[in-house]
Amino acid sequence: MFAFRGRQAQFLRTCRSLCKTPLSTSSAETRHASLPWIAVGAMAAGGLGTGMLLQPNVEASGDVAPPSFSWSHNGMFNSLDHASVRRGYQVYKQVCQACHSMQYIAFRNLVGVTHTEDEARGLAEEIQVVDGPDDEGNMYERPGKLSDYFPNPYANEEAARAANNGAYPPDLSYIVSARKGGEDYVFSILTGYREDPPAGIEIREGLNFNDYFPGQAIAMAQQLYPGVVEYEDGTPATVSQMAKDVSTFLRWASEPELDDRKRMGIKALTIVSALALICLYYKRHKWAVLKTRKLVYKSS
């Protein structure tokens, strides 16, 4: 009996020693190993919280989000309406170009998209470009070329602000990509003017009420009116039609390679699908023998 109690006491001491030392070491190592992950989680949570706090609240500011329209070029297999892009360029040239520049679009970009080469060259020759110096070191003016970019209506930003009561008309080259909502935003701005603001809203002198502009007070007056542009193809120049056409044109200007990208994507998907079928057939051909084999064990 005493021998049994001695073995029992020795067994308990061994268990306690095993439970204390390894477990305490393991827990300490676990805590040290988890510290970097805790720090990363805290930083991620802090960044997410900061982003949510800095995100503007549209409803609180009183702004109205532009509605979503079903554009003909939306979708993976849909291309731009090039007739609409051509009409949109006409609207830009006759209405928007007086105040807004497009300094990243050249006349050569129109070739094969909205105009033929001769038509684009004729458009370029309508402007005068300061070039030089010549052999005598003097600057001179020449007719525009296909390689020239769309002209800037103002010499600099200060001149633009002086001509627009302190407001600076933004460059329209990438306006669709730079604004949330894209062409929906542009279309809504152009069609969102009201002659009289709603009751309780006062608009300062020199500003105009617009449902979709941030703050609903915009320095640009309404520019599109029925018949302000006479389309070459005879399309009725309603306000919504002109806004739709110039929005499509600005979408093209923001992504001139949009159609090419979609075309290359379709080609890539076709090739990848064909390769996937070939690989599937090759895999089944090589592995069919192994996957359909039967193992038979003979009893001795």
Brief overview, please?
By secondary structure, the protein is mainly alpha-helical.
Explain how this protein is built.
The protein has 300 residues and is mainly alpha-helical. Helix content is 50%, strand content 4%. It has nine helices and four strands. It has helices at 2-54, 58-61, 82-96, 117-125, 157-163, 175-178, 183-191, 239-254, 258-291; strands spanning 128-131, 140-143, 208-209, 217-218. A two-stranded antiparallel ribbon has the order 1-2. Strands 3-4 form a two-stranded antiparallel sheet. A hairpin with an 8-residue loop joins strand 1 (128-131) and strand 2. Helix 7 packs antiparallel against helix 8. It is extended and about 105 Å long. It starts with a helix and ends in a 9-residue tail after the last helix.
From the alpha carbons, calculate the radius of gyration and give it in angstroms: 35 Å
Number of helices: 9
What is the H/E order? HHHHEEHHHEEHH
Distance between the termini: 53 Å
- Strand portion, in percent? under 5%
Total E-strand runs:
4
The percent of residues in helical segments reads: 40-55%
Apparent shape: extended
| Spans where pLDDT lies below 50 across 5 or more residues | 21-26, 56-62
Report strand order across the widest sheet: 1-2
Q: Whole-number average pLDDT?
A: 85
Largest sheet report = 2 strands, antiparallel
Report the structural category. mainly alpha
